[in-house]
Amino acid sequence: MPIRVDAYIAGGLVTGVLARSGHLRDALEGSPSLDLERASWLALGQTAARPVGEVSIAIDDVLIAVADVDPTIPTHAAWHALEVDVGPYRVTGELPTLPGFDPGRALTRPSGEFVTLRDVRVGMRDANDPDVAIGHHALVNRYGVERVSADLMLGFFFPGAKMDDPDPDTGDAIPVSV
Predict the structure, then answer these.
(1) Which residues of the chain fall below pLDDT 70?
(2) Domain(s) of CATH 2.30.30.100: residues in the chain
(3) What CA dihedral angle connects 120, 58, 86 and 115, to 10 degrees?
(4) Which of the 8 DSSP states describes residue 119?
(5) What's the CATH code, domain 4-67?
(6) 149-164 pLDDT, tens per residue?
């Protein structure tokens, strides 16, 4: 069954059909490029997409990927609300952890380049436009994330990202002014 994919990159959005069988995560984690067929390109700031046929996007260039099928997620996950800045995008959603997860004592670290989020909304970082729901699940390139705001210390999920300081009274993240 063909899988429709939306791939958000720094310059815009590529939409197409996965050129190989299997899951989107397998294509992102097991290949140096994301190959899409029957693709269209929507550049940032444009209102109409144009057909481009077949495209091959380097995996490191994929910031957010959304498929029209649900990914495999932990069965009994605890979900944590977060907001991340990745490339020109601001993404809100929820990140799964296993019940009882304690980031200060965790021995296991996430593997792979992409983390799963659910109930995902995307907007432009520097715009006042409202966020747009892009899917029930999305895969976010954790190495491309520049800022994280969450109710839990998630630094090792997003190496190199700036973590917003939590409110000492409530534990909620407070955006740090730059």
Answers:
(1) 1, 70-76, 98-111, 129-130, 154-156, 165-178
(2) 4-67, 78-172
(3) 50
(4) E
(5) 2.30.30.100
(6) 887 776 667 888 888 8
